[in-house]
Amino acid sequence: MQIVPTPPPDCLGRDGGVEGSQARVHVSARRYALTMEFEHRWLGRIGYDEAHALQRALLAERAEGRGRDTLLTLEHDPVMTLGRNANPTHLLLSEADYAARGIAVRHAERGGEVTFHGPGHLVMYPIVALRENGISLRAHIRALEAALIAACAAFGIAAERRDGAPGCWVGERKIGAVGVRVERGVAWHGLALNVGRDLAPFDLINPCGHAGVVSTSIALEQDWAATARGERDLIGAAAPDLRSVADLVAAAYESELAAYGTGASVHVNSAVPAAAGGSR
Q: What is the CATH number of domain 40-262?
């Protein structure tokens, strides 16, 4: 992170966000611009253990002052993950029963309770040196929640935070989750956003430790909106392309942190990308 002089007027610009590229965020406030660089990697569908090992390797690099802050975006093979202090009674089946359904169970270092990740569910793991960049844990979590809210807004969905329940909600329905860990000044783990329609595995747990919580997704919220408008031909349309949603989430997260650094107000471009062959 560096602060460099820049002439007025204030402006916001961003480029990048593709696999293996550097993403650069510029936010101008008063007469200075705060520049943060991220590497955004789209990993596609990947097993939990493989992604966890990659997080660990990147964490070690950043803790030693090497590498760069990285955003890993992906979808997992079906897996239930429990936070380090999670109550196992929120798993409603045995691990053997989950395995019989093709769902792994993993205990994670993050905070929070149990959640599900699988195809059609976007996950973003930011490996970010908070201490080095002067970012508080609260600001990091708020940026993750803001990224969820911004991505939902891009698809016409009004989502919001809820006190005491980190993540993202649409009314009483939960659409996104947040769970992080900080080691040696570096944050890892991150957020999850339901994009596709298959939410059946959430019925096999108490999501995030809340019995009876109804889960929702971008695709389902679009179905209900189409129903309310009487646009029956749009019900069941292809869910948004996960890669495009990943780019939206990464851009919103980067912009939120840049605004935190300057005190500026940032508005993320929320143009909806083409829904090309997305998952359900």
A: 3.30.930.10
